[in-house]
Amino acid sequence: MNNIFEEILAKAKQLENIENFEIAVNYRDFEMAITSIASSYKLDEELKSNLLETINNELERNEKLAFIVFFILFTMSRRQNFGNILDLVNDYETYFKKFEIIKHIRLMAVLVKLTNTKKIYREILNAKILLEKKSENSNFANHVGFLNAFSALICKYFEYELDERKDQDNQKLLNLALICINKAIKIETHEKGIDNVYNKFYLNRGRILILLGQYVKGEEDILKSIELLPYSVDRESKINEYNQYLVKSSIIHAYDLNETKVDDLDRIKVSNYKSIALMTTLLGFLLGSINIFTTISDRFTLLCLMLGYCGLLLVLVGTILLGFSLNFKEHKKRLYVYDVLLILLGALIFVGTMILINWG
Questions:
Q1: Smallest Cα–Cα separation from 67: which of 123, 12, 128?
Q2: 8-state DSSP, 1
């Protein structure tokens, strides 16, 4: 085991000599170099203890080496699901805050370990600030690893909170995630070729498309991500994991269809309530006032009263419709305008007929 630790330490020291270290660590090439080391060894408690001891010993003597070993330990823990990587990041984030890539490392830890949706949403907003931030040392807007992790975290949040997609700001957030993952795919395609794009980029784009209601395109991307899985010992387990997102797609689709049907039923109910209330009110008004016309013999007065009566009916109908428009879900300004115009027209007819009766 000491031999493995010594090998890792030797490789870490080689990375220490990279030119412009504080800038270089923020780019994808450095992350891939760390991943190459981390994926070559199996982590256990003894190796983890040795690596942690090295980090703590070098924090003040050799900050660069301490950070490299930390990044290796984090990547090994994340890829092998060993221990709580979010606790690891929380323990050392303050020490390594001068390296901006620590924000990306935190994002990856949050993606794996955080389940509290309110905290996830806060982390998303913090990551969004990093995307928009301009820095001389880093460019997260073009870091494909960061773009992918950011998009995946948005997927995770909205897969927990499906109803939150209705919010306009959250729709913008989902569309931003789609822009980010498309950008990551474009960069990878340019650098490595279309057949060498990281499979999770297509997986996460598929998840975003499904959350946006583009189920067929989303499922096609998930199937493409399965095709791109490398032939390794964990390929079958990865296929099973990715297939779960196809199952989740069916669940989300069914949920969205159900929501649409509920909305339709609500609209039907509102229309029925309006019709019943309108008919009942009009019937009561007619029955209560029909006797007025039997006492009038003058034709001109009778005609004016009938016009005035129609005006009152328009006012009554407009008032009822406006009341329902304000109290139910159909909040459309166009309908409000029609209701108000109906009331005004009725009032105008009624006042006009009353003036004609007085003149007559």
A1: 12
A2: -
Angle between helices 215-227 and 199-211 (to 10 degrees): 170
For residues 222 and 203, is the Cβ–Cβ distance under 8 A?
yes
Note whether 206 and 225 are within 8 A (CB).
yes
CB 201 within 8 A of CB 148: yes
Residue 248 corresponds to which tokens in the numbers above?
A: 């989740």
Instruction: Kindly provide the b/e burial profile for residues 234-258, where b requires at least 16 CB atoms within 10 angstroms of the residue's own CB.
Output: eeeebeeebeebeeebeebbeebee
The residue to which tokens 């008919």 are assigned: 279
pTM: 0.70
Q: What are the tens digits of pLDDT across the range 188-239? A: 998 888 878 889 999 999 999 999 999 999 999 999 999 999 888 888 888 9
Alpha carbon of 1 to those of 5, 13, 37, 67: distances in Å? 6, 19, 16, 22
Cβ atoms of residues 304 and 343 within 8 Å: no
For the chain, state the CA radius of gyration.
33
* Backbone phi, psi, residue 83, to 5°: 75, -175
Query: Looking at the chain, which runs of residues are DSSP E strands?
Result: none
